[in-house]
């Protein structure tokens, strides 16, 4: 007979075969029952549940190699007296940025927690290279974490400002994931020096304790402070010691002269709060900048402690893409400082001071703001102005604002905080060049116009603290002699008219590649219009003063005015765009 064949029941041989088949079936059933029992026992061992407490419900855990996990029923809180901690005292330790709140939690609540876990579960022993103790996980009821938050909220920052690891964040909650540690003197239990890693908020899902990490909707919440809740005292040893930065277990073994920077002696109901590191990159930083701590060896008695986390809620846009936004905003947005608001081009005090420079015949009432915006945007270091007056103060103010902005950029860049994702926000070479000297405006004016305002502009510049930014020369623009490629922006406002070709021939090479020439009143007066038409048609150097194929141009008109109503902008550049490519889309 082969496997799967129905046995023949006729005759003696059939009876033997039938009996054999019966014995085989019974054996298979016993094996299945035994395997089911073994699997059931294995699951019981995994949850470590010997439930004599209705306050605990076993949970699976999504955290690898985690100790047994239980849901703590909130009903047990109802049986407690409605008490609060009496006169908690907070000690601050600036060296380690820690706070210890003595008497933070009522003693009867501490006792009840110990009673629940002692009678409701068996702990898992943890013996690793850095710790030796027993532990389990509790998912706390929200009533208990709310109680804890209310008890400690005055002892941690309500708001964390943005830094290189996270954006601005506000105090939100206490992590429901409690790690209960039991240190026994008989076993010399301890936890060697380490820096705490942070955790995301935890909750129950389908009978399991899960951590809401970056893949979940709650990714904007993460822990920033460790919370150690001491459930008892009366044992010997067990201090929480903080050591010098970089101290490890072997250091204490090799060198008994290393002493703690701070040592916290646990008291029943006390809560210790100190910074932790949530991300991998933050942990790398913390190990080089944060004092590690240890749970010193317990030599007698039993020490009970709960470790949880203080959760902060990041601003809605604080994700991987926008984490540095606060830093970028603080660095680059104009008029951040009080001083800037007082002398900025939109301030009443600025407009009042330059009012005497405005002459309608010059037509510069809107040009000041155009030039200010161009210079703020293009960041020229050396500007030349032919014909000074109303626009001079706008240019000087833009140069000063540029220098202030670039100083902020240099400071933020030196701290590695001015970033988009993992990339620097700014171009290093430009920022480095900027630090060598401040910007400068060279002004050339013959001061012969009947409505001349150049000399007054220089006086007002000095009164506004802009004297160091201006170099005023009385003279003829056609006699100016600039070094080649030394000018970033050349502003021509002196009625050159028919001599525009000669002026450009003499000065085009002084403009650096990528630099600009801006010419006033270029479209609606006949003399300059002829030059603009030749520029537009590619008339060549003989007709324009500018070699063909070395520039781009655009002309802008104030359509409501007849006179002094336009500008033409030339940029010195090759036919190809040779600006570097920094990104695919941004």
TrEMBL record:
The keyword Membrane is assigned to this record: yes
Gene Ontology CC terms: endoplasmic reticulum
Key word Oxidoreductase present: yes
Cross-referenced Gene3D superfamilies: q2cbj1_9rhob like domain, Vaccinia Virus protein VP39
Pfam families on file: Methyltransf_24 (PF13578)
Domain of life of the native organism: Eukaryota
Domain Prolyl 4-hydroxylase alpha subunit, residue spans: 96-311
Stretches that traverse the bilayer: 20-39
InterPro entries: P4HA-like, Pro_4_hyd_alph, SAM-dependent_MTases_sf
Keyword tags: Dioxygenase, Iron, Membrane, Metal-binding, Oxidoreductase, Transmembrane, Transmembrane helix
Cofactor(s) recorded in Swiss-Prot or TrEMBL: L-ascorbate
GO molecular function annotation: iron ion binding; L-ascorbic acid binding; procollagen-proline 4-dioxygenase activity
Classification via PANTHER family: PROLYL 4-HYDROXYLASE ALPHA SUBUNIT, TRANSMEMBRANE PROLYL 4-HYDROXYLASE
Protein name: Prolyl 4-hydroxylase alpha subunit domain-containing protein
Species assigned in the record: Triparma strigata
């Amino acid at each position: 007979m082969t496997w799967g064949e129905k046995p023949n029941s006729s005759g003696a041989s059939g009876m033997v075969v039938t009996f054999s088949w019966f014995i085989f079936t019974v054996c298979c059933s016993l094996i299945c029952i035994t395997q089911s029992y073994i699997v059931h026992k294995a699951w019981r061992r995994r949850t470590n549940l010997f439930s004599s407490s209705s306050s605990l419900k076993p949970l699976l855990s999504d955290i690898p190699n985690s100790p047994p996990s239980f849901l703590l029923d909130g009903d047990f809180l109802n049986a407690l007296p409605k008490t609060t901690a009496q006169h908690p005292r907070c000690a601050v330790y600036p060296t380690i940025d820690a706070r210890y709140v003595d008497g933070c939690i009522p003693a009867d609540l501490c006792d009840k927690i110990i009673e629940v876990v002692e009678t409701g579960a068996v702990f898992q022993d943890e013996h690793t290279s850095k710790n030796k103790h027993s532990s389990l996980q509790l998912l706390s009821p929200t009533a208990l974490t709310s109680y804890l938050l209310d008890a400690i909220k005055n002892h941690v920052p309500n708001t964390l400002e943005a830094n290189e690891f996270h954006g601005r964040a506000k105090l939100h909650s206490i992590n429901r994931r409690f790690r209960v540690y039991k240190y026994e003197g008989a076993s010399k239990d301890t936890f060697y020096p380490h820096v705490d890693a942070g955790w995301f908020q935890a909750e129950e899902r389908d009978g399991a304790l899960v951590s809401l990490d970056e893949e979940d909707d709650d990714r904007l919440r993460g822990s920033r402070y460790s919370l150690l809740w001491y459930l008892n005292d009366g044992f010997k040893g067990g201090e929480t010691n903080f050591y010098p930065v970089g101290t490890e277990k072997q250091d204490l073994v090799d060198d008994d002269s290393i002493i703690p920077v701070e040592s916290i002696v646990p008291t029943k109901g006390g809560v210790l709060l100190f910074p932790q590191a949530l991300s991998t990159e933050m942990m790398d930083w913390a190990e080089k900048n944060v004092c590690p701590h240890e749970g010193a060896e317990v030599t007698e008695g039993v020490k009970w402690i709960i470790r949880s986390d203080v959760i902060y809620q990041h601003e809605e846009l604080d994700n991987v893409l926008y984490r540095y936004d606060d830093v970028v905003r603080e660095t680059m947005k104009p008029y951040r400082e009080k001083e800037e608001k007082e002398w900025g081009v939109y301030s009443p005090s600025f407009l009042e001071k330059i009012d005497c420079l405005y002459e309608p015949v010059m037509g510069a009432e809107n040009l000041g703001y155009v030039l200010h915006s161009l210079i703020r945007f293009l960041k020229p270091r050396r500007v030349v102005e032919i014909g000074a007056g109303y626009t001079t103060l706008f240019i000087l103010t833009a140069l000063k604002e540029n220098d202030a902005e670039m100083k902020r950029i240099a400071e933020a860049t030196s701290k590695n905080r001015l970033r988009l994702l993992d990339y620097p926000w700014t171009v290093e070479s430009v920022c480095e060049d900027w630090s060598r000297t401040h910007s400068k405006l060279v002004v050339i004016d013959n001061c012969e116009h009947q409505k001349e305002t150049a000399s007054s502009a220089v006086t007002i510049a000095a009164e506004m603290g802009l004297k160091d930014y201006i170099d005023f020369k009385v003279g003829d623009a056609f006699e100016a002699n600039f070094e080649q490629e030394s000018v970033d922006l050349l502003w021509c406002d002196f009625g050159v008219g028919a001599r525009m070709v000669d002026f450009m021939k003499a000065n085009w090479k002084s403009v650096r590649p990528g630099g600009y020439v801006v010419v006033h009143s270029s479209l609606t007066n006949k003399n300059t219009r002829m030059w603009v038409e030749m520029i537009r048609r590619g008339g060549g150097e003989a007709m324009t003063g500018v070699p063909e194929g070395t520039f781009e141009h655009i002309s802008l008109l104030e359509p409501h005015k007849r006179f002094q109503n336009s500008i033409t902008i030339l940029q010195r550049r090759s036919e190809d765009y040779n600006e570097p490519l920094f990104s695919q889309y941004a």
